[in-house]
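Um, can you check?
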Amino acid sequence: MKPADIVHLHSLSAPTLSPDGRRAVFAVTRPDLEEDAYLGSLWSVPTDGSAPPARLTRGARDSGPVFSPDGRWIAFLRPDEDERAQIHVLPADGGEPWKITSHPLGAGAPRWSPDSSRLAYTARVPEPGRYVGVEPGKEPPRRITQVKYRLDGLGFTNDRRSHVFVSAPVDASGEAGEPVRVTGGDFEHADVAWRPDGSELLFAASRHETRDTDLVQDVWACAPEEGARPRRVTAGDLDAWGGRFSGDGSTVFFSGDEIGPDLDDFVGRTTGVWSVPADASAVPTRLTPGEGPRMTGPMLVVADGVLGLAENRGAVDLVLVPFGGGVPRVLVGDKVQVQSFDSAGGVTVAVVADGRSSGELVVVSGDGVRRLTGFARGPAPLPMAELTAHAPDGYPVHGWVTLPEGEGPHPVVLMIHGGPFAPYGHQLFDETQVYAAAGYAVVMCNPRGSSGYGDEHGRAIIGAVGEVSAADVMAFLDAALEDGRLDSSRVGVMGGSHGGFMTTWIAAHHGGRFRAAISERAVNAIESFHGSSDIGSFFPRPLYGPPEVWAKESPLTYADRIGVPFLIIHSEEDWRCPVEQAQRLFVALKLRGHEAEMLLFPGEGHELSRSGLPSHRVARFEAVLDWWQRHL
């Protein structure tokens, strides 16, 4: 795989099934270097496999399809002339779609009412004189009164809150009436769902007085009408979202994290499936075990339980959680990552990725899975080999090694993931494939602090992030280097976000093991991160400890120990790890006369390597390969 081969990587949206389960619709999106954008359209396939997938829409950026409960319509998102996503409706049996929303900042994912007459969704409402019809630099000044006022990849949120809307009745004539705004106030709202009888909506929001200083988020319910008064369903002591009613409307199921007695401890928490009476007559009950697995993504209430996704040692399983609670039953597992799913008419489909594909649609049955699509193209991926090493204290460290073609010995790139509560896993990863195809053995693992291995594993790094993580990462590297096909004299280290933090830390504390380093979008100085990051107000203390230890825990403190050539990659509009984190490290290295370079990407945020402009993703790959070519 060469850098420009990212154009061969496709992504499938969450599928939607017709009510009878006979047809699945989904969006297929790919990077396009000529347009320097991500282009996609809707596709359809019969679930019995009787025909290949067929393109359904001619739009260039169509996404998020969802069938109406009566099977007549498909709602989806398509950008308008100002590139703002608006909800469109397409007749399920064919025809031209029509636009039913015209929000100045676009609309969010649509959710059909049970009678298929209306759609609920969220949309951002800008303050007068902002974002629309005015140059950004000529807007009036922003008055900031809260610490949670912006979000990486979006921008300021305090002057364009997200509210719940309900569309006018869907009209086959193509005319769109005015939607009804359901929520109000200075709050963010998300995750809309309907009650089965259509009398209420569920949504997630932090509407309590202390929302600026804690991590509480509740599930709320209200009537789908203007001026409705929301009522809280959860108990105000969890981070809760994704609420869904039971079939009879008596129970609400939701995803949630416990956040400790001070309501701010998010580190390593294993997300669970919870239930609560819809009338809030009792406190929520956790249905999945506290020690795991960690639930991730949306859920769906079906006849015999709750379908959801569960992280499991680098895999993501499709599981069924019993209504009464207990260990989830795995429906799709093994060495794969299930990305999304739907179930209707006795049929369940899922988008499943593995080491050979970035995701294909399959039908799930008791006998396994049957593939419905085959969108993968481009070079055949190199295989990832699993490895388990042991840290100095005997703790097992799980990960993978990908070898280039040829006998070697090959130069080595040690990659460290972000988060830290995130995993590497069983999927086609463009980073791994590009570096391995260029001749480097790629070593990557899930040290303590990663997700998918239980709470204890995720929380083991609290107060000693660099020290504990480095012990695991270096032990895994040592185990990988026992393979004679890897050249222990030519090793580089790289990582982004928390992985960038660890790259800087390891270069300072274990630099003698490496020839060079690349740190991307990193946290380097905790104190300034605390005041400049979009999550800085709450992130550092539960993870790194109290402010008096932040200097000790900051990689920048040890910059004078870094002795290897050092490349810093950052985005100018990164609000998660602001660019000052890169600049401070760069200046510290350069003033010592050290070999250091900094590559800054304009117009990009924290997600550059995953969803930045295709041209920027290619340029980043080329810069990384150039650096390793020079130093390894």
Notes: The chain is about 15% helix and 35% strand. The first helix runs from residue 430 to 437.
